[in-house]
Amino acid sequence: METTKELDYFALMAGLSPEEALKWAPLCSSCRERITAALRPGIIWEQEERLALACGAMACCLYQQQTTGGFSQVKLGDAAVQAPSPAQALRLKEEAWELIGDLLDNIGVCLKGTAYEH
């Protein structure tokens, strides 16, 4: 299976090897579809590197939510492995949307003081 830039960014952010990341390719594809559906007309995915970066970040956020199970640290003897907290993963997702905000179609209404859910 051919890797994509999105999958490469995902692997880098999630700390996975390219081979390990391949198992999560459907997750990256799903994130790409979600971003593509939100783009303004005329935006070409391949011409915007940051779309791939945002896609990888969103996939990483979902990966962290699915794999950490709410634990932020695993300790075995003196060795500890720190995983991003759910809040950190959510912030990564928010930053990804902010990164591509100017490329998104602003359909809908957002009232001041309310959150827009992506």
What does this structure look like?
With 118 residues, the protein is mostly helical. Helices cover 53% and strands 7% of the residues. It contains five helices and two strands, in the order H-H-H-H-E-E-H. The chain has helices at residues 5-14, 18-22, 25-38, 49-68, 86-99, and strands spanning 73-76, 79-82. Strands 1-2 form a two-stranded antiparallel sheet. Strand 1 and strand 2 (79-82) form a beta hairpin. Helix 1 crosses helix 4 and helix 3 (25-38) crosses helix 4. The mean pLDDT is 78.
Descriptive terms for the model:
118 residues, mainly alpha, two-stranded antiparallel ribbon, 5 helices
Helix content: 40-55%
Pattern of helices and strands? HHHHEEH
Q: Compute the CA-based radius of gyration.
A: 16 Å
Number of strands: 2
Q: Low-confidence segments, ≥5 residues, pLDDT <50?
A: none
Give the count of helical stretches.
5
Beta percentage is: 5-15%
